[in-house]
Amino acid sequence: MTEPAVDDPVWTRKHLLGLADLTRDEIEFILDTAASFQEVSTRSIKKVPALRGRVVVNLFFEESTRTRMSFSLAAQRLSADVLDFSAKSSSTAKGESLRDTARNIEAMGVDIMIIRHPSAGAALDLSQAVDCCVINAGDGQHAHPTQALLDLFTIRERKGRIEGLNVAIVGDIAHSRVARSDMRGLIKMGARVTLVGPPTLAPRTFEQFGARVVHKLDDVLPELDVINMLRIQKERITSPVFPSVREYVQLFGFDRKRLARCKPDVLIMHPGPVNRGLELAADIADGPQSTILRQVTNGLAVRMAVLFLCQQAAGKGR
Amino acid sequence: MNLLTSEQMHETLDRMAAAIGAACPEDAPLSIVGIRRRGEILAQRLLPLLEQHGRPAAQHGALDITLYRDDLTTIGPNAVLRGTEIGFDITDTWLVLVDDVLYTGRSVRAALDALTDLGRPRAVKLAVLIDRGWRELPIQPDFCGLTTETTADHIVKVKVTEFDDVDEVVLV
Questions:
Q1: ipTM (interface predicted TM)
Q2: What is the CATH classification number for the domain harbouring A161?
């Protein structure tokens, strides 16, 4: 080991809480590191010893299948040991606070906590309460940084760049942490972001972040390079902010007719799980423009990169 | 102090290529894998030389050993991944691992672990441009350009035009 790799490390953060405070260089560094990790998943032995002997805990206070599995598999591919915590079967059901729960778990010798929580700010709060690394896997409507990073990674992979692309995020913007994190990341990387939805779900207040807000999907279709369709959260369909399902599908559902008005190489994304026939027609979700499954695959490499970089930043001198 | 000039560096690599070509069994596919970053460059330099000596490499690639290092916990954010690019199955090849400087032997140990995860070569041979001594592990080169005595506070720097604008080896 004759030479240190670089003079000025780009990544020095032990937590990943959101994209709002990251620089463009830092985001690019994560994406580049993730690209290196893709190779690991193509081997017959899909494992490297980088986090051997480290303990990663999934602290999930909200339902999740793919994000939790993706983080678990990413940690295992780095040779870490993984513990799963779910709120239902634990003492939080008995009234224990987040901080107390986290401190107790940390006392078992944990290196990285991955938290998903229904309250915005839970990840930040946790990072102030514990010494280990904290990675935000979604907090309320605030942020979901690894989803945004894997979306950026997928766009860069398919389009060769992010800068200058016209990207639309369509659906329930107001209640979506994915929309917020995607918007932050895309704008930082130089994309032009258009938020599309009915006024109740895509309010003009989002323009303050540098995005354009429109209420008619059909007006912008021909100019878009990437369309990210958000999942319509079923629990909102009965609420007053949501138009009727039929009206929503008519105005914002993406189907073959709308695809015909797009650029031929438009990229269709979705954070999953897809409500087929609601926000996205089934033949589009499975079509050649769709990159939904690639997003899932890339999510693994991106999460390996995040786990590795945060642990490296925390581990200096240990 | 200058250990090798650009010209001497080329001659040394040529001698190493000749030795590798002579040693590789005729019935085995020769594969060349350089350790990133400077071993990778030297591996690329060896390819045309091997061809000139009539024993071209069947495949070649670059190995990133960062994730296999035994000092990952102490180097912190200085660990930068550049990725492994080995687009072939190393199993049953006669594999020559190339690095610039052999020192403690820990890089080579990490590289051997990384190769084990990729497949099972018929043999793994080690080629280094400079052996500066001070081994901390029982690892020795099979092909060595130059052996030089050093003290522990010496730095042996292999410079290549790709990164340093010049080809030379210096001892500082």
A1: 0.87
A2: 3.40.50.1370
A45 in reach of chain B (CB within 8 A): yes
What angle, rounded to 10 degrees, do the helices at A145-159 and A24-38 form? 70
Q: What is the pTM of this model?
A: 0.92
Report pLDDT digits (tens) over A16-31.
999 999 999 999 999 9
| A213 and A257 fall within a common domain | yes
Question: CB of A134 within 8 A of CB of A168?
Answer: no
For A187-225, the pLDDT digits (tens) are: 999 999 999 999 999 999 999 999 999 999 999 999 999
DSSP helix/strand/coil, A216: coil
Per-residue pLDDT averaged across A263-275, rounded? 96
Do residues A210 and A271 share a domain? yes
- Residues of chain A in contact with residue B155, where contact means CB-CB under 8 angstroms, are 2
CA angle A150, A155, A159 (to 5 degrees): 155
Nearest CB to B80: which of A5, A40, A48? A5
User: Do A87 and A169 have their domain in common?
Assistant: no
| Six token digits for residue A34 | 């993730």
Cβ distance A183 to A209 under 8 Å? yes
Q: Which domain holds residue A112?
A: 24-143+298-315
User: In this complex, do A315 and B72 lie within 8 Å of one another by their Cβ atoms?
Assistant: yes
Which of B63, B64, B78 to mutate: most A Cβ within 10 Å?
A: B78
Q: What are the residues whose beta carbons fall under 8 Å from the beta carbon of A182, sequence distance 6 or more? A: A147, A148, A151, A169, A193, A228
A317–chain B Cβ distance below 8 A for any pair: yes
Q: How many domains does chain A have?
A: 2
The three-point CA angle A232-A233-A234 to 5° equals: 105
Taking CB atoms and an 8 Å limit, are A312 and B77 in contact across chains?
yes
pLDDT digits (tens, 9 = 90+) for A55-77: 999 999 998 889 999 999 999 99
Domains and CATH numbers, chain B: 2-171 (3.40.50.2020)
Pick left, alpha or beta for residue A201 (phi over 0 → left; psi -120 to 50 → alpha; otherwise beta): alpha
Tell me whether residues B76 and A312 touch, CB distance under 8 A.
yes
Cβ B117–A48 below 8 Å, yes or no?
A: yes
